[in-house]
Design brief:
Blueprint (H helix, E strand, L loop, with lengths): L9 H29 L1 H9 L2 E7 L6 E2 L5 E14 L5 H12 L11 H11 L1 H5 L4 H8 L5 H11 L2 H5 L3 H15 L5 E5 L5 H9 L7 E11 L6 H4 L14 H5 L13 H5 L1 H4 L4 E8 L2 E9 L6 E4 L3 H19 L9 E7 L6 E11 L5 E5 L3 H4 L9 H11 L7 E4 L19 E4 H7 L2 H11 L17 H10 L25 H8 L8 H12 L3 E3 L4 E5 L11 E4 L4 E4 L4 H16 L6 H4 L7 E10 L13 E11 L6 E11 L7 H41 L1
Parallel strand pairs: 2-8
Antiparallel strand pairs: 1-6, 2-3, 3-4, 3-5, 6-7, 8-15, 9-10, 9-20, 10-11, 12-13, 14-17, 15-16, 18-19, 19-20
Length: about 700
């Protein structure tokens, strides 16, 4: 019997394979049908879908003008080239940077070594791979090294020789590319805004179609019509490289600022950032898959509002000139090696409007030459022992606490307190009974000492301990001084105001020093607020630098409507009777108008009837020439507070000349500065009134001529 032939299974398997392929193709055709017929329109819409992206462009900041509407701070337009990162790929950004480098010159001074290495890797992708060994690539492929570690190894192995192969053109491209990548998506970033030539601006403008993301625009800089005058108080703004300050990043981002935007970073620019900043212009970009299809303007934007300052720039400049002349004149006298600064504050005692905020300090310019620099900021940021100028507050504090009453008398004779090495006495051994008015007139220290003793509820006996029954004597005196503005923030509309230094020890002798201004320290602005409080009848008014805020005008040379009129603010009243206040005011008048007054010789013939108080404080030098560990050096601080006219005050003044001289006697720059400054104030007022009268007469004459013609 023959062997049975084995049946082949191959046809069955082939048929099964063909059947499976048939089923898969059928499913594919079915799926394609569903995609094209059922969902085709949906997918077509998805492909054609566009997105709207809103980008905001900064506008010029608001201006600052003085009380007579002279422009102090303005904006200077300048050409700029910007780049907006519209989610472009790295390769495209690099290509645009290459093209732009052919059209403009860009400094590479901001390019760091790390930037060069990153750029070298981009330019040499194949070469950089060879910096990694095969073994290291194996570790990477086996996931024992990550991308970041490989990249760091490549960076470490790029040599100086490699970097030196980058040409000047490469570095220029890198500098431009670095600006591209330092911005944020959909936010214009400054590529170049310094020394953009007309040729560069025109070349870029003509080739914008080949430079996606690049634009030519107008940027701006702050300009100062009066040079460095008051510039430390006006403040500064960040540049486009600084952008938003890190410590206030969240604050600004929640207010629609971009990260690279310029904002006020100090003083008035910072204090009034919200109104100076303006409303940015907004543009809608229509994009599709990252490509820009078109754009439309949503809003043109509006530059920042204008600040009308209380400052009188004509007066400010004249006062600064006085400071400069008197500082140099004082420096020509003996014992003035350490003297390097002086301050003047002029304030309307009824409104708190600061008309002048002047400070000058000796320093070095960029060439190393000794010059007087603006230090107006020192009127709120630096504090000093001021001496007898505070005695008006001491007498009024005595009234308030019941320690003395108007007419109270004390014997002015040297005082010796047990445990205190020095005898405490007046500047002259008067050996006389005197009342409060004369004590102010001749600047009796002993009268103030004995007032402080009464405030402390103590009893004085020669060379005996001075036991205080009132444990709050220091607090009582300082709290009362604070109601005048001494030792507290004045409330001026500037940040970082100093409150001065409060002596830490509470020995009885220091309370007596506090009473004559030789323990705690005060700023020139505090001194101006203090004397204003006495001048206006006992109201502590908040000093201010901004008078009103105005809407931006359409015409550059015009003012917009008032947006906010800032009214005077009373912080507190000092709580004394009219009789008590008038007693002190009479003493201050006599300081300058009575033959026995300490300032009589310099102010007796002043036609504007001034009142005030002089001060000379024994202090220790704590200036820039003192180094850590140096022994303390005795110096004299000079001060002066005043107001005029005494019966109807319209101006209040403080003058401080710290570290004026060494030794027991020296120049009187505080007198010279004070007299010249008040003379200038009233002379300017006279000139302006005369000018207004002449204008009025001219207008009336013109009206009469028109009437005659009719």
């Amino acid at each position: 019997m023959g062997k049975k032939k084995k049946k082949s299974h191959l046809p069955f398997r082939v048929n099964l394979l063909f059947f499976t392929v048939f089923i898969l193709f059928s499913l594919l055709i079915l799926r394609l049908g569903v995609v094209q017929i059922v969902n085709g329109e949906t997918y077509k819409k998805e492909v054609e879908r566009t997105e709207d992206v809103i980008i905001a462009n900064p506008v010029p900041r608001g201006r600052m003008l003085d009380r007579d509407h002279q422009v102090i701070v303005d904006n200077f337009p300048k050409s700029a080239i910007t780049y907006t990162n519209r989610n472009a790929k790295q390769e495209e950004m690099l290509e645009v940077a290459e093209l732009l480098a052919l059209l403009i010159q860009k400094n590479d001074d901001k390019v760091r070594e790390r930037d060069k290495k990153d750029f070298w890797i981009m330019k040499n992708p194949e070469t950089v791979k060879q910096k990694i060994t095969e073994k290291e690539w194996d570790l990477f492929n086996n996931k024992k090294l990550i991308d970041k570690e490989i990249y760091e190894m490549q960076l470490e192995r790029i040599t100086e020789e490699d970097l030196n192969r980058l040409s000047e053109h490469d570095l220029e491209v890198l500098a431009i590319y670095r600006e591209f990548t330092s911005g944020y998506a959909m936010t214009p970033q400054i590529v170049k805004n310094e020394k953009v030539t007309p040729e560069e601006y025109a070349a870029v403008s003509e080739n914008l179609q080949y430079l996606p993301g690049v634009n030519t625009t107008t940027d701006w800089d702050r300009t100062y019509a009066f040079g460095n005058t008051l510039q430390t108080v006006l403040g500064k703004i960040t540049d486009s490289n600084e952008g938003l300050p890190s410590e206030k990043l969240d604050y600004f981002l929640t207010r629609d600022y971009s990260r690279n935007e310029r904002v006020g970073k100090s003083y008035l620019e910072m204090q009034y950032e919200d109104v100076l900043h303006g409303q940015k212009s907004k543009e809608r970009l229509i994009t599709q898959k990252g490509e820009i299809l078109g754009s439309e303007m949503i809003s043109e934007g509006q530059r920042g509002k204008d600040l009308i300052l209380t400052i009188d720039m004509d007066l400010q400049q004249a006062v600064e000139k006085v400071l400069e002349e008197e500082i140099w004149a004082a420096k020509r006298t003996g014992g003035t090696y350490l003297m390097d600064r002086a301050f003047v504050v002029l304030m309307d005692p009824h409104t708190g409007e600061v008309l002048t905020m002047a400070g000058k300090m000796i320093g070095k310019d960029r060439g190393g030459k000794t010059v007087l620099q603006d230090y107006a900021l020192g009127t709120i940021a630096s504090s000093y022992n001021v001496g007898s100028s505070v005695k008006g507050a001491t007498v009024l504090t005595g009234y308030k606490t019941g320690a003395i009453t108007p007419g109270t008398t004390f014997l002015d004779a040297p005082m010796k307190i047990a445990g205190t090495p020095q005898v405490k006495k007046s500047w002259f051994n008067f050996q006389a009974i005197m009342n409060d008015t004369r004590a102010l007139r001749i600047s009796s220290n002993v009268y103030m000492f004995k007032t402080a003793v009464e405030i402390a509820d103590a009893r004085y006996a020669y060379d005996q301990p001075l036991g205080f029954k009132n444990p709050r004597a220091f607090e009582d005196m300082r709290e009362s001084f604070g109601q005048f503005g001494l030792g507290v923030r004045t409330g001026i509309d500037l940040p970082n105001e100093s409150i001065g230094y409060e002596g830490p020890l509470r020995l009885p002798g220091f309370l007596l020093d506090l009473a004559i201004g030789q323990y705690d320290t005060y700023t020139p602005m505090q001194m101006a607020q203090y004397i204003s409080t006495i001048a206006n009848g006992g109201y502590r008014i908040q000093p201010r630098l901004v008078k009103e805020i105005r809407e931006p005008s359409i015409e550059q040379n015009e003012l917009g409507p008032v947006w906010k009129d800032i009214q005077p603010k009373v912080l507190n009243t000092i709580g004394v009777s009219e009789r008590e206040l008038n007693t002190v005011k009479e003493g201050l008048r006599q300081v300058m108008q009575h033959p026995e007054g300490t300032a009589y010789r310099r102010f007796a013939d002043a036609p504007y009837s001034p009142a005030g108080k002089t001060g000379t404080a024994e202090a220790f030098y704590d200036g820039p020439l003192r180094k850590t560990g140096d022994p303390l050096i005795d110096v004299m601080n000079l001060s002066l507070v005043a107001y005029a006219p005494h019966n109807n005050p319209e101006i209040a003044m403080s003058v401080i000349v710290p570290w004026a001289y060494q030794g027991r006697s020296g120049h009187t720059a505080n007198y010279e500065i004070g007299r010249r400054v008040l003379d200038i104030y009233f002379e300017l007022k006279k000139q302006r009134l005369s000018g207004e009268e002449n204008e009025q007469q001219a207008d009336e004459s013109e009206e009469n001529d028109e009437a005659d013609e009719s």
